[in-house]
Design goal:
Largest sheet: 6 strands, mixed
Number of helices: 10
Bound molecules: NADP nicotinamide-adenine-dinucleotide phosphate
Strand content: 15-25%
């Protein structure tokens, strides 16, 4: 048997900004594991061949990020329930000669909101902004928390309607007009505009008292969505750094059977060392 460290990587395009190698190296140190974890920039036509070669050469696990989560789903012989329901995979690993796919984004989001921020999701009115891979991936885990209802708004209405069809009526699709007079306890920004300074067309009237505003995007500075939410009087604000660490911890657990302690890793990334 080879003594080489187990080999993992995150694959996406772009990928330069990814904090996953740092997070997984901190998990490995914490749990006494010997692993290597790289970043792989792959073009769309090469994705399937890259995955096949990676596992053929003994790779132990891959994380998959934008824009490949749907592509990864199509390659899997086995799917976790969340991955099957969401149609998106962010974690790949070999099982019994087959490629297994899971989606840990939703569990990551739920653990960050429910456990780290101590904000119960059960019974809450949730508004999700965006209908891309990230929102698709988190819906099953949010649904498992029994919110009062989940509503999605997306810039491209047809994409939101397609998502609602995939979720069998448990998700309401809305327009900005229909949102007039409505209030929410939890507003989750799952659009990718934040990094370019674009905030979705939000309205302070949507914030129920104590509303939690959560931006899946993480950045060193306050995002435009969180600045708006703070100025509009939201009760609780968070970016997506905790979600990032929690989804990584769930991937690590699937790969290695041990769950790392996420608190010190989140803290370490927050202070940027
Ligand atoms: P995606 O599949 O490319 O979808 C992007 C979404 O953003 C679409 O709904 C798109 O609307 C919307 N959008 C983009 N620019 C917009 C703008 N200027 N105004 C309004 N809506 C806009 O991307 P994704 O995979 O869903 O990722 C979304 C974000 O979540 C990314 O920033 C990603 O980094 C973040 N994320 C974070 C974590 C974490 O662990 N913290 C995990 C996953 C994703 P249209 O359909 O109209 O184009």
């Amino acid at each position: 048997m080879s003594n080489a460290p187990a080999r993992y990587a995150v694959v996406g395009n772009p990928i330069g900004h990814s904090k996953s190698p740092l997070i997984h190296s901190l998990f490995a140190r914490q749990t006494g594991a010997e692993i290597s974890y790289g970043k792989e920039l792959v073009s769309e036509p090469d994705f399937a061949a890259f995955v096949e070669t990676f596992f053929h050469n003994g790779g132990a696990g891959l994380n998959v990020t934008v824009p490949f989560k749907r592509h990864a789903h199509a390659l899997c012989g086995k799917l976790s329930e969340n991955a099957a329901r969401s149609g998106a995979v962010n974690t790949l690993y070999p099982i019994d000669g087959s490629l297994a796919g899971a989606n840990t984004d939703g569990i990551g989001l739920v653990r960050d909101i429910r456990d780290n921020l101590a904000y119960a999701i059960s019974g809450k009115r949730i508004l999700l902004l965006g209908a891309g891979g990230a929102v698709r991936g988190v819906l099953p885990a949010l649904e498992n928390e029994s919110p009062a209802r989940m509503t999605v708004w997306n810039r491209t209405a047809e994409r939101a309607a397609e998502l609602a069809r995939a979720f069998d009526g448990s998700l309401a699709v809305t327009s900005l007009e229909a949102l007039r007079g409505k209030q929410f306890d939890l507003i989750i920004n799952g659009t990718s505009g934040s990094l370019q300074g674009h905030r979705p067309p939000v309205d302070a009237a949507w914030l129920a008292p104590g509303c939690c505003a959560y931006d899946m995007v993480y950045a060193d500075e306050e995002t435009v969505f969180l600045r708006w939410a703070r100025e509009a009087g939201a009760g609780l604000l968070s970016d997506g750094l905790g979600m990032l660490v929690e989804q990584a911890a769930e991937s690590f657990h699937l790969w290695r059977g041990i769950r790392p302690d996420t608190g010190p890793v989140i803290q370490r990334l927050r202070i940027g060392v």
